[in-house]
Amino acid sequence: MNTVTASQARAGLYRLIDQTAETHRPVVISGKRANAVLVSEEDWSAIQET
Predict the structure, then answer these.
(1) Strand 35-38, strand 2-5: pairing
(2) In what side-by-side order are the strands of the sheet with 27-30?
(3) Which of these, 7, 21, 26, 27, could form a disulfide with 40 (CB 3.0-4.6 Å)?
(4) Does residue 10 have a pLDDT over 90?
């Protein structure tokens, strides 16, 4: 799982979205107060079904 800062994610958001959708590898976005995980829509749908 890749990790990027919130600033890096903001600067390359479209590339990050495309990369996540193509590779199906989640990306951790680290912020000052909390972290988040970016997953592809397809993977998120699969998670929701379980």
Answers:
(1) unpaired
(2) 2-5, 27-30, 35-38
(3) 21
(4) yes
